[in-house]
Amino acid sequence: MNKRARLDERPIPLIDVAAQRRRLGRAVDEAIARVLAHCQFIQGPEVSALESELAAFCGARHTIATSSGTDALRLVLMAWGIGPGDAVICPAFTFCATAEVVALCGATPVMADVAAETFNLDPASCERAVVAAKRLGLKPRAIIPVDLFGLPADHDAIAAIAAAHGMQVLDDAAQAFGATYRGRKLGTLAPATATSFFPAKPLGCYGDGGAIFTDDDALAERLRSLRVHGEDADKYDAARIGITGRLDTIQAAILLEKLKIFPEEIVARNAVAQRYAAGLGAVATVPRVGNQSTSVWAQYTIRVAPPRRDALAAALKGQGIPTGIYYAKPLHRQAAYRDFPVADGGLPVSEQLAGEVISLPMHAYLEQPVQDRIIGAVRQALAG
Ligand SMILES: *Cc1c(COP(=O)(O)O)cnc(C)c1O
After folding, report:
1. pTM of the model as a whole
2. Tens digit of pLDDT for each residue in 288-303?
3. Which phi and psi angles does 141 have, rounded to 5°?
4. Given 33, 37, 108, 290, which is the most exposed site by the fewest CB atoms within 10 A?
5. Closest atom of ligand 1 relative to the 298 alpha carbon
6. Distance 71 CA to ligand 1 centre (A)
7. Which residue's CA lies nearest to atom 10 of ligand 1?
């Protein structure tokens, strides 16, 4: 059997964690073995080492490693004292955790629409969500822009809205750590930034994990306390209500190894994205990054109008090519979120995108012949 034929038969993963593991070789095993030897499973030396490395990587003054991306978001809202009567604006076209943390704090998520070209929070709709929140008697306290699929949101426009209304900004960079906006890495674009190290994210660990980035000294101190049950100097005299929000030492040790190859992986992901754009631009709406940002391509998401989108997914599946639909239902159409308020003017773009989006296999180890097979299959399915 020649190489070409073998490639045609191999199942293609949507995100290939195993290929990365092969590249890392023994480095991860050895890092884990070191933790097993020193036994400091909670807040061990690897956690603070990772926090320093992540801070250096993105340029933030403080990094607080957390148990998940969701806890990272939640801890910031807790630290800001956001609660009942407060409104937090978030996009409707995102993973539910963005709004979940708002509701968990007792505050009200107010959903805004996104821009079709970027999948990210539409500043005009964000402004209309603030208007809706005020009319409902809620106090608009914060905006949570999401850097969806790895592409930074329009941070300058969002910062301007926040400033005009005296609101905070919490950047949900769960999918976008490593991406840049106007030459700066995410982590410093908002007063606080949260990311996730869920295995399928661009920088993932081998379990759950996340981190918060901030330049605000007082906020960082409060977050470190909230992360450990609200303890301050005296371990058994809680100063405030907190949570168990720490990152495990073993996950930190794994992330330290993965961070070393992350810059190269970002380059590789961008090469994959470029080849997709060149191969598919004529048959589908492919994502465009523009010149003020770079993406880390958590997903490579194209748009195909219904009913052809579902036919494409079925055709690809038949050829062993997996796809993902992120997101089939915007938040305001999901049972848990449908009673929360939405921006004036509704959320037509989020609703339209839910019917059009389809994400193709994307990772740093997608070999060119495999990608050519995917491109060929998409083109064939969409021809005519
Ligand atoms: C993954 C994700 C989260 C949550 O991260 P976890 O680590 O899974 O808790 C939050 N927001 C967005 C946009 C995400 O994609």
Report:
1. 0.97
2. 998 899 999 999 999 9
3. -110, -35
4. 37
5. 15
6. 9
7. 97
